[in-house]
Amino acid sequence: GESVGLHLPTLSVQEGDNSIINCAYSNSASDYFIWYKQESGKGPQFIIDIRSNMDKRQGQRVTVLLNKTVKHLSLQIAATQPGDSAVYFCAERKETSGSRLTFGEGTQLTVNP
Amino acid sequence: GAGVSQSPSNKVTEKGKDVELRCDPISGHTALYWYRQSLGQGLEFLIYFQGNSAPDKSGLPSDRFSAERTGGSVSTLTIQRTQQEDSAVYLCASSLTATGLNQPQHFGDGTRLSIL
After folding, report:
1. Model confidence over B103-113: pLDDT tens digits?
2. Domain span at residue A29?
3. Distance (Å, rounded) from C-alpha A40 to C-alpha B62?
4. What is the pLDDT of residues A66-112, one digit of tens each?
5. In this complex, which of B42, B45, B48 lies closest to A106 when CB atoms are compared?
6. How far apart are the two ends of chain B, measured CA to CA in Å?
7. CATH code at A16?
8. Cα distance between residue B104 and residue A32, in whole Å
9. All domains of chain B, ordered by start, with CATH?
10. Which of B30, B43, B48, B57 to mutate to test the interface with A (most CBs of A within 10 A)?
């Protein structure tokens, strides 16, 4: 079925290291992808987005890579900081489902000092 | 504030009661969305509004759920005859538009609903 899923439910890294969070999607009709960060007790916070006509987009300390051939999305965080500890969700928008987003189950990132 | 505002932040009620959850979107945003998040899970789409168009209600889990958006701004999500499985965090998001250019959805901090 159609789904957005994550390869790893948890990720633990040392402060200062780079983090890579992965996401797989199954619907080739998806045209827009977003990464969100969610801290405990808070709503998801927008990090970065990418359209399907791109394969890479960079923000401040973050890079999103999109590989449409294997339907894979990743979020790279450079020089990870303790404040980056949170659950990270990828979400996709499918052209055929209007503007709703379909979310994956999330990856818990823990940054060790 | 400049973000999406939701109230109440927490709601505890007895099974069978009705509840109303409120969302104030970001000023100027024409699209408004409701999602539900169960403990430790991703977000589940419920409904979205775009301007004066008919809302997309396809994600509502049962006819006990309804939502309205008055004046193109504030929205209320109503759950009638609440059941224990309705316990979740209800999140509201808004975006500049729901059509045309891809616009990120910006979320409030949600209402944590607990049904006893």
Report:
1. 889 999 999 99
2. 4-112
3. 28
4. 999 999 999 999 999 999 999 999 999 876 666 788 998 899 999 99
5. B42
6. 32
7. 2.60.40.10
8. 10
9. 5-97 (2.60.40.10)
10. B43
